[in-house]
Amino acid sequence: MIKVPLGTMSEILLFTVVDAFALSGRAGPVLVPGIPQSADLPTMRVGAQIRITAPDGSSFETHIAGFEKISYGRRPPPDKICTPISLPSSISKDQIVRGAQVFLVTAKSGDTLP
After folding, report:
1. CATH assignment, 9-39+48-71+81-106
2. Are 102 and 52 in contact (CB under 8 A)?
């Protein structure tokens, strides 16, 4: 676990959850639409810390357990391409409500993590 002094974290809104579901072979739920492909977002990896905030204001922190690939087959891809994420097995799909916001938790610019 990385210890960071209070007040040194910031959050970047990644997406608003449209649906959460279980996939065979995945430990935790998959959230869609997922992270949009954007040059404005930092590079993310498995293990990146995220905060999920429900519409009622309640929230919890977890991490990205995986990135899911979508095959569009012969269909044209959508205008806005997103990468769904999967969560760890400690999170159930019932904990994720439609309309929840997913934030990437990062150190503020200029701060270093010990």
Report:
1. 2.40.30.10
2. yes
